[in-house]
Structure formats: C-alpha cells, structure tokens
C-alpha cells in the first residue's frame, strides 16, 4: 500500500513516514507543501492520503477540495491542530474520511490509516479471506487452509494488495505504483521475482490445490481465478477493472 | 477613622437637591410674605387709627360753658367699642377717655412702632396713635376765638392684625409645603423618564460580551448632548477592545497550533522509538532527535514570550530605555558571525562616516535593539545563497536613524509580501520550516519597532530571469532628541 503524506513540519513528517514504513509496511511519499501534495495526488496511485491542514503554498482544505473535484476516491486522513467542531464538520463535508487532532498517538494514526485503506477497498474486517487463503493485516500473517505461510515483507505487501482485489487482473505497473514510493527505481522484473516467490510459498503450503495466483502474460496477475463471480465467500468485494 | 459616605444614585441626589432648593425658597417666601403682609396690614391699621383719631378730634366740641372750653362729646362718637382713646388739652386736662381704659397720661406711650406706638394694656397688645389737633372755639368772634390744642391718643388692639398676618403666612407656608410634597414624586417621575436613554444605553452596554462586541446604541443616546460623548467613548473603547481581543485570540490560536505541532513532533519521535525493539545506537540517535525537538520547542516558547513582551504596551518602571543603535548593530553582526560563516555569506556593514563614536540613541531597551537587528539579519542570512553578500547600510536622516538590510536571495513573492510580519507566517513554499526559525522573528522585529514608534518596510521584486535581486528591509527609528543633546553638552 502506498501513502501520500502532505506535511510541512519536517520532523513530524520524518517520524510519520518512518512509522508508516516500519509498522504496516506502507510505501510513503512525502510532500512538503500543498502544491506538491496536490501534484503528487494527481497521479492517483495512492491508497491513502495523510493531509496536514496548515500548509504553505496551498492549504490542506484546498488540496482536499481539488482532489474530490477530480472525483478521486482515495481515502483522506486529515491531521489538524485546529480546535472546534465546525472545523471538523467542514472538513468531513469537504470529503475528508477521518481526522486526527495534533498531538496524536502514532499507534492510533497507523490503526486509522489501515482502517481507511481497508474501507477504501471495500473490506470491513482486518482479516481477509479468499478461497481458504487468510491474510491477517494486523499480525501481517498469512495462512492457507490453516497452514501458516512465512512471507518476506515485500511478498506480504504484494499479497495484501492482491487480496483486496480478488479476480481482478492487476498489472505489474499497478503493483509497482502501489508498493513502492518515488525513491525506488522502477524495475518491473523486481515484481516478477517477488510474485514468483510468493506463488511458490503459497502453493507449497497446499500442494494439491490449484495455483492461487495466475499470471496473465503481458497483462498482469490475478488472485483466486477459481472464485465464482457471484460467490458469497469473500470478505472483500471486487472493484471493477480499471 | 474615615467616614465612608455611601454613594447615592444621581436621581436621588438630584431629587434631594431640588427639594432642598424648594424648601429654602418656600422658607424665603414665608419670611418675605410675613414682612410684606405685616407692612401692608400695619399701614392699613395706621390709616384706620388716623381715621378713628380724626373722628375723636371731630367729637371735641365747644363746651357749653362760658370759659370757651372744649369737651369731648362721647355720645356721637362711633368707634369700635374695644378700642381705647383719651383726649387731653394743652393744659393737661383730660377731656375724655374710653371707658375700658385707665389711661396712660399725655406723655405715654413709649415704644414707637411705625407712626404709632405699641403698648401692652391688660395683657393685650395695642397700637396707639398720638395726634395733635386744634379746635378753635368761636372762630367768628373778634380775635379769632380761642384755639385749643388737644392731644388725642387712640389705640386699637393689634391682635386681629397679627391674626390676619399669621393667616396669610400660614397659607403661604401650607401652599409651599403642599408644593414640596407634590413636586417630590413628580420630579422623581420626570427624572425617571429623563434618564431613560441612559438606562437604555446601560442595558445595551450590558449585552456586550466577548462573543458579541456590537453596541448599537439607540438614537436617543446619540442625540442627547450628555450621552453622545459617553456613547462615542463606549463605542470606540469597544472597537479597540474587540481588535485587541481578536488579535490576542488569533495569537493564542496560532500559538496553540505551533505548540501542538511541536508536541506532536516530540510525541511521535518517542512513540516511533518505542514501536519496536531497537539497537543501542538507534536508541541513542532517537534520543538525540528527541532532544533536538525539545530544543526547538524551547526556542519556540522563548520566542513567543519575547513577542508577548514586545507587543505589550506597558513598559518597565523607571525612565524610558534608550539604546545605541550603532552598538546594537555591531553586536548583532558579531552574534551572527558564525551563522554567516556557516552559510558562507559575507556581511558588509556601512556606517555613517562622521560621528560613529557619538551614540545614536533610539527609544528601546538595548537588548531589544540587538534582538531586532539580529532577527532581521538572521532572516537575510537564511535566505541568502552561498558566497553572496548581505549589506547593512546604517545612516542618519535628520531625526531618524535608517538601517537598510539588503540580501541577494530568492526574494519574496508579491502576494506573500504583506504577510511576512504576521506571526508564524512562513512565506512561499521555498521558505518552509526547514530553513529553521520559529516563524516569529519578523513579528518580534515588527513589535519592537512599533513600540519604539518607528517603521519597518520590506521590499522585494523577485524576477526568475534576474536571480539575486533579493529582499530589502528598511528600518526607520526616531532618534531620541533629549538623549542626543545631553552628551553634546557634557563634552566641551
């Protein structure tokens, strides 16, 4: 998952980025002012935007309004030091999904960030379940038919992204966009290696089953190809293919 | 022990004053009416006495005896029966006397009272008139007849005169008292009505609160000459209060925002450190970061306190402080020497050629003067590219000290220019927090200059084609006249 952090206070931004990377393992891009933030948000490759309100260049509320004017559905978590219900009501009405008042608890920020990403992808519960594959996003653990699968952090992040979109073909480019921040060199073969390892580990846990990740040559990857199209099972609902 | 007099309401005092004036005037009316009535009544009394005395004289007739004597014919005399009289001739013979009197003799009475005298006879007061009359017996005879000089004493009781005087005075006194009793409540009612605009104004003024500063006085309060100045004063006081209150509230809100952010930094630093088990080096690095965050918070609090002190209108007791601006500039330059060296920026100070030794005194505390110059210089240094120059041009124009600080940095955008002196304002995106500072330096400078009665101006015309135009800050401070003459006199 990739998070855009728009915060002008350098030290706070450093801490938040470190916490979001270390904790839930998100890729974090940091914008120091409103205009850069708006510019980066325009790429529409983020699963969450953490937005400070008092920003140089363009204030947080304007960034939010521009985002929603583009019909961008990315969840937005506002960081505010301002007091008052009116402020919060105005923010939520302008399209914010949640807010945190400074000084906030880092653990709470991470929990809210996860919840917002989950909700943004249509999942209500932190444990996702597709065709016997269970991903616990709190513990960052993966089980296949009850068997614990040990994954590297990157493999877990690939799976976490895919399990939010079962049966949907996810391109390598999309995976790259959502798993790495701007500081990474974009080499699509890195993804290939990680997906290959992931598939091996998942299938090793249940050798007799069908491969759970299908490679669509030249198009991308698809999780749980055998899932019935209107099946009642999954805890997450599929999004239309972009 | 001092006796404290309970202050009374204006209405009460006015009513008491009016009633006191009324009381005094009614006493005066009673006294004057007494004097006037006494005068009038006694004049009439005197006329009446004369009339009766004349009729007594008329009753003195030729006695039917050969000696041409006269006698008093009391049979034809019609005078009030309670009156007294006596008639003497020039020889001291009593010619006649009223039956109710023993007589006083021709020499009596003694107490003169107007044109008649007063006497107390049988316990009653009488006004007694004494007239001399002549009666000529047989005027037709040769030799002119015999002339008799008679003295008539005629008296009448004054009690009924006094009675009518008393009645009249009593009427006036009762009338005045009645008026007094009636006008008391009437004045109270009129005052109550007359003070209505004042009460309305007070009621409206009492509705003013921190949430609603608007005072909309009734038109009566504006048009009443006594209330108009009060209304205007109230309105202007409220406006000033509202302005300063809003300013304070904005400052508190800004300060709260900055402090919350600073606390958020510290809290997140500590929580981040605590998120997982780390190595000793990581802990040490984390603690150093936390310490740096604390230092920044400390700096922020110190700056806010400095700003609050500079913005407060009250000054410390004692004579107004003065600072030698030239010394302040040199001190500030010395303080920031290391910063300039670190950023590789050259600082050039141009001072007036003559009289650099003579102090140029400006009305501010020396510490404030140094802080002012160092804040401006630091700002210039922070926005100077490496290997550039910051020029300080210090001069004197008549009674004004002028300091121009010119940097060759990226300049300030025109739309940001009016806000640079605002608290916590951090210009355009390029001037973000990572250039350091608390966002209070220029606000503090502005507050110090305003307090000293000077002016500060910032000019910048950033041009992407011509980088290095930079920013020019012009500082103008009034030179303390008295202070500058004193050392001139002391040196021969």
List the helices and strands and how they pair.
The complex is a heterodimer of chains A (242) and B (492).
Chain A: E1 2-6, H1 10-22, E2 27-31, H2 34-41, E3 48-52, H3 60-69, E4 76-80, H4 85-93, E5 98-101, H5 106-120, E6 127-130, E7 133-136, E8 141-144, E9 147-149, H6 153-163, E10 169-170, H7 172-179, H8 188-205, E11 213-216, E12 220-223
Parallel strand pairs in A: 1-2, 1-3, 3-4, 4-5
Antiparallel strand pairs in A: 6-7, 7-8, 8-9, 10-12, 11-12
Chain B: H1 10-59, E1 60-62, E2 70-72, E3 84-89, E4 94-97, E5 111-113, E6 116-121, E7 124-137, E8 146-157, H2 159-194, H3 196-206, H4 219-223, H5 227-274, H6 280-311, E9 323-324, H7 325-335, H8 337-343, E10 346-350, E11 361-362, H9 366-382, E12 389-397, E13 400-406, H10 441-451, E14 455-460, E15 471-478, H11 481-490
Parallel strand pairs in B: 10-12
Antiparallel strand pairs in B: 1-2, 3-4, 3-8, 5-6, 6-7, 7-8, 9-11, 12-13, 13-15, 14-15
Say how many strands of chain B there are. 15
Name the pair of protein chains with the most residues at their interface, and give those residue counts. A-B, 29 and 28 residues
Mean pLDDT of chain A: 82
For the secondary structure, the number of strands of chain A is: 12
Please tell me how large the radius of gyration of chain A is: 18 Å
- Approximate shape of chain B: rod-shaped
Give the termini distance of chain B in whole angstroms.
59 Å
Topology pattern of chain B, helix = H, strand = E: HEEEEEEEEHHHHHEHHEEHEEHEEH
- Annotated CATH architecture of the largest domain in chain B: 2-Layer Sandwich
Describe the sheet with the most strands of chain A: 5 strands, parallel
- The proportion of residues forming helix of chain B, as a percent range, comes to 40-55%
Briefly note the CATH topology name of the largest domain in chain B. Answer: Heat Shock Protein 90
Query: Can you tell me the residue ranges of chain A where pLDDT is under 50 for at least 5 consecutive residues?
Result: 229-242
